[in-house]
Amino acid sequence: MAVARSVASQLTDADGAYTFSELVAATYTVAISADRFRPVAALVEVAEGGMTQHDVSFAGAARLRGHAHGGVGRQPLADARVTLVDEAGNVIAATMTGPDGGYEFGDLPEGNYTVVATGYPPSVSMLTLNGGKETEHDVLLSHDEH
After folding, report:
1. Which residues in the chain show pLDDT less than 70?
2. Considering only CA atoms, which of 87, 80, 74 is closest in space to residue 127?
3. List of domains in the chain
4. Nearest to 109 by CA among 52, 41, 36, 60
């Protein structure tokens, strides 16, 4: 079994261009990532003595964050379970809220999701995430009916 190793790494310039020089003829995996975009990997064949150009298009990655509130005065709820479900009903991710009631999901493809916050009573809400955008979404797990 062959073990993959990194041959070179660099940042793009202000125009998004990158260049690797002195590569031997071979097939390489080029992996590219950028903040707020989904990572991309592609096989690129470099010919002997020639120059190979490979452009990459990114899809924006969405980020969802918010807080869980509950009880009298809608206090932040720590340790509440928040689950993110896609349109097909697949669980994409789940997390527990922090001490401030906060939760966050990152690197999400754009689309429609359901947020399920577990408490008493549970909270379910639907939302749409747009690529390259951050969405703030708070959940209310319980409320005082007095």
Report:
1. 1-3, 120, 142-146
2. 87
3. 1-58 (no CATH), 62-140 (2.60.40.1120)
4. 60
